[in-house]
Specification:
Elements (H helix, E strand, L loop, with lengths): L2 H14 L4 H13 L1 H23 L4 H17 L3 H15 L2 H48 L12 H6 L1
Helix pairs in contact: 1-3, 2-3
The structure holds zinc ion.
Length: 165
């Protein structure tokens, strides 16, 4: 058996101990005489197996969970205070009184609000325009497919239609 095949088996079944004795013996005989595969096995054990063994042994202390819980609670209590933080920031800005800066931020706010409104109006117009387009497209498609406009009062004259319309 060549080294590639051996190393494939080592990487999968051998390190997982999912191997019958015969295969295991075969690999170990190969390993005994092949330095390349010995090094490969050592590397695999070091990089693939060892981190998991250490991970299993690591049990976080109860303090870790308490800290995590505290952090979550703090985060939740910060959210309602966001507005306070914002207004604090504004009043600090006013206290520092940099007229240029205050004016600039006010201008940005007004400009931003204006843009937002314009955008939403534009968006609505776009949507209705698209709806009209879609309707026109659909009616043109049905007309060409049926070879003319469908007379809605007449229907298709099928029996199934009586149940659904
Ligand atoms: Zn080998």
């Amino acid at each position: 058996m060549d080294c590639n095949k051996i190393q494939d088996l080592i990487l999968t079944d051998y390190i997982d101990n999912q191997m019958d004795e015969k295969q295991k013996n075969m690999i170990e005989t190969h390993l005994a005489q092949c330095i390349g595969c010995q090094e490969f096995t050592a590397l695999v054990k070091k990089t693939v197996v060892e981190p998991f063994i250490q991970a299993e042994r690591f049990v976080p202390s109860e303090n870790v969970w308490i800290e995590i819980k505290d952090n979550i609670m703090q985060e939740q209590s910060v959210k309602p205070g966001l507005w306070d933080a914002l207004t604090d920031g504004m009043s600090n800005l006013l206290r520092a009184w940099k007229p240029g800066l205050v004016f600039a931020s006010m201008a940005m706010l007004i400009l931003g609000a204006g843009l937002l409104r314009q955008y939403s109006i534009y968006d609505q117009e776009l949507k209705s325009a698209k709806a009209v387009e879609t309707m026109e497209y659909l009616s043109s498609v049905t007309q060409t497919q049926e070879g003319g406009a469908i007379d809605e009062s007449e229907g298709f004259g099928t029996t199934i239609e009586k149940y659904f319309l």
